[in-house]
Amino acid sequence: MNIESFREYCLSLPCTEEGFPFDSNTLVFKVAGKMFALTNIDQFESINLKCDPEVAVELREKYTAVTPGYHMNKKNWNTIQIDDSISDKLILQWTKESYNLVVNGLPKSVRSTISIIS
Questions:
Q1: C-beta separation of 69 from 28 below 8 A
Q2: pTM
Q3: Nearest alpha-carbon partner for 17 in 1, 2, 3, 36
Q4: Could you tell me which residues are beta bridge partners of residue 27?
Q5: Of 90, 99, 104, whose CA–CA distance to 35 is shortest?
Q6: Distance of CA 77 to CAs 21, 51, 89, 114, Å?
Q7: Burial class (CB in 10 A: 0-12, 13-18, 19+), 38
Q8: Do 71 and 47 touch, CB atoms closer than 8 A?
Q9: 74: which DSSP letter?
Q10: How far is residue 66's CA from residue 87's CA, in Å, rounded to a whole number?
Q11: Exposed site from 2, 35, 103, 108, fewest CB < 10 Å?
């Protein structure tokens, strides 16, 4: 996985925007103004993704490269190390799940205009 392929995937999801709200190194992906992924563009070593709290714990127990979200709410966010111990396919699946989790949490009026990705 590299930053270009991760960025391209995130931007392929409906209504996704990217930006640098925190600093010039932290690339944030949002849907309807809500974050679903962020990473450091200079040192693409990890990705923060939103996750269902129960699933988050399971992933942390199963994968050593998955830890509580760095600088995030530890209950709802995981940090995934990009160290080749987790397949690109699985990382992109978790990214999609993060996106869908955020979309499902949006107000109904907004959610109805955005597609859930299957």
A1: no
A2: 0.92
A3: 36
A4: 39
A5: 99
A6: 18, 5, 19, 22
A7: buried
A8: no
A9: T
A10: 13
A11: 108
Q: What is the pLDDT of residues 18-75, one digit of tens each?
A: 999 999 999 999 999 999 999 999 999 999 999 999 999 999 999 999 999 888 888 8
29-32, long-range: CB within 8 Å, 24+ apart, which pairs? 31/99, 31/102, 31/103, 31/106, 31/114, 32/102, 32/103, 32/106, 32/110, 32/114
Tokens for 40, please give them. Answer: 């450091």
> In whole angstroms, what is the distance from residue 9 CA to residue 12 CA?
5
Dihedral-angle region of residue 114 (phi above 0 means left; psi in -120 to 50 means alpha; beta otherwise): beta
Q: Are 50 and 68 in contact (CB under 8 A)?
A: no
* Amino acid identity, position 69: G
Helix (H, G, I), strand (E, B) or coil at 71: coil
- Give pLDDT, residue 63: 96
